[in-house]
UniProtKB/TrEMBL annotation, chains A, B, C, D:
Belongs to the TMEM175 family. The keyword Plastid does not apply. The lineage of its organism: Bacteria, Bacillati, Cyanobacteriota, Cyanophyceae, Nodosilineales. The keyword Cell cycle does not apply. Keywords: Ion channel, Ion transport, Membrane, Potassium, Potassium channel, Potassium transport, Transmembrane, Transmembrane helix, Transport. It holds the Pfam family TMEM175. It is a multi-pass membrane protein. It comes from Almyronema epifaneia S1. PANTHER family: ENDOSOMAL/LYSOSOMAL POTASSIUM CHANNEL TMEM175, ENDOSOMAL_LYSOSOMAL PROTON CHANNEL TMEM175. It is found in: Membrane. It catalyses: K(+)(in) = K(+)(out). This is TMEM175 family protein.
Length: 191, 191, 191, 191
């Protein structure tokens, strides 16, 4: 269990860099179709609307995960290498989100695509919950004075998104549109 | 409203990383045509001149936005999560600039392309202005001793580019060349 | 031999950034086949299983190298430019690992592919060992009070993976499957 | 002329990130030919030898530029925004080096390719020299106690590579091989 500040800073820095790269790589999917003609640019730019939407959504999703990472890490004081490993597991999920989003965009109404996206989001949420649970168990890596209530509250808030996404995997088999709607429940919890 | 230094540093760091990735990805567009022959390399390298020009322009545009981000953030002392969210919105615009530039390069004299570029630049500028306005309103996130005059001056300077770009969207419908010329007005303000 | 903190921080930072980019670029290989039909998405997503596996493995391998880099650098106190150069050599190996993994994935049972992967891993491990050996020789760049036993232990642990991988290059000529199995020996040492 | 530490740190950090991305993107050029057959992997991996060589060379060239950036920036104490702008100009050259290298690799014995590479390297070197000259002129951004001799020595060392590359542009017209050989003169100066 290390307390060295530089060591913890490197972990945070490394996470930030992965988040930043994953979020910026999203822009690589913004592309005019190769066969665009000079006189149809305007039309083609408008036809890309779903691509802009998907770019914005993914950017916001990864952005929110980064904000959440930022928020939870403010309570971390020490680290051990299992903690680092779980954090890398979380980053592995984050770096895969652009792929999950592109699947959802290309086949937005297909049940498999919706279920796949929900699965990825569920895994990401579980990783985050595990990271937080591991860090706070018996105040392992957080400050002693962090109140038990606050720890529990943050655990619950971390747990809600993956639970909703898990439920929506089954729902997607019945109706992809309903499953997507259910994701809105997460927003309701936080606002 | 947090004052923790590491928290603010992470926000700045994350922004820098997104800027750095967006600016470096520009170089991915520098490519020899696939069908280059051994004996026409020299000619092909010269024919890429518009690509070099566009690379340099985009690099400078994103670079200037980074300098401006750097400049404005020197006055930020605290943060809250709405501020972080607006900043992510700004980064979303920045990361999309390479796409906007590539559209402008490919169809440089087409009114839709010019208008689209102006639209992106306008959104980026508005985001920056919003970020600054939010931070300085009632000295929310800046130092109390920052003079009201300076805040107002910086707000005005932030507002000029998006206003010019907004006007140039209409202008582009009449004449793309004129619209591009009008962008020069921004430079006049700053030098 | 410099002791300036910022200088050392930049070296660490630069390394972290290269690790982060290499690890995030892995996700670029996650792609649905171009000819996916609307009604076979589910099937296609399942057929990508080897790609997910390879993504996870590569992520973990580079992640472990980063953890190890993090662990060893905690003992570094100073730097000179030969140390920086060896570190860049190590980063050169790290940045090439995604390529080595993609070779192994595409031809997973082919002896050349297995031998090539083992060769890359061996070079990476040797670079890391060299870096550590250079830094600790006569306490060149580490703290005087770091015990000789600990230095030796860390050298030995750094040396085991490249030795196993070197042996597995020969083994791969006889049996690629056996060579891959032998890599498991590394895990045995560390757990 | 600012002295704020965070401001200077951000400039250094941003530069490091651009260097790190440019250097890591080099690995994207390592690719097996698309038509590789299962039974020719070994042969194909060997046939990629020029690609490995070019990867290593580019990695070393950008790495050396980073080391040099690291070395020169140790003397910088303050910054102004013209300094930041010149630094962005230098980064623009750095981010273009992977393209220059790929041109040189694909047409290694063609005079235009050699001249183009020399031109890029010359521009990069001149940018670095300009940055240093600007920072040290009348001790503008460096510590007063930095000796004039040291400043001059570092200026001269910064100036040698661009001068050699400039001369080699003309030489490349006569003999590309001779031009490449002349680049070795730079190494002679530094070792």
């Amino acid at each position: 269990m290390k307390r060295d500040k530089l060591g913890l800073d490197r972990i945070i820095f490394f996470s930030d860099a992965v988040f930043a790269i994953a979020i910026t790589l999203l822009s690589l999917d913004l592309r005019l179709p190769a066969n665009t003609q000079q006189d149809s640019v305007g039309y083609d730019l408008i036809r890309l609307l779903p691509e802009y939407q998907s770019y914005a959504t993914s950017f916001i999703v990864i952005g929110l995960y980064w904000i959440s990472h930022h928020h939870y890490f403010r309570f971390i004081r020490r680290y051990d290498y299992l903690f680092v490993a779980i954090n890398i597991g979380l980053l592995m999920c984050i770096a895969a989100l652009p792929f999950a989003t592109s699947v959802l965009d290309t086949y937005s109404n297909h049940r498999s695509a919706v279920a796949f996206y929900a699965l990825c989001m569920m895994l990401t949420g579980l990783m985050k919950t595990w990271l937080w649970h591991y860090a706070t168990q018996n105040f392992r890596l957080v400050h002693r004075r962090l109140s038990v209530q606050r720890i529990r509250l943050l655990t619950q808030r971390a747990l809600i998104p993956p639970l909703v996404f898990a439920a929506s995997i089954g729902l997607a088999m019945l109706s992809p549109a309903l499953a997507k709607l259910s994701w809105g429940a997460i927003a309701l919890v936080f606002f």
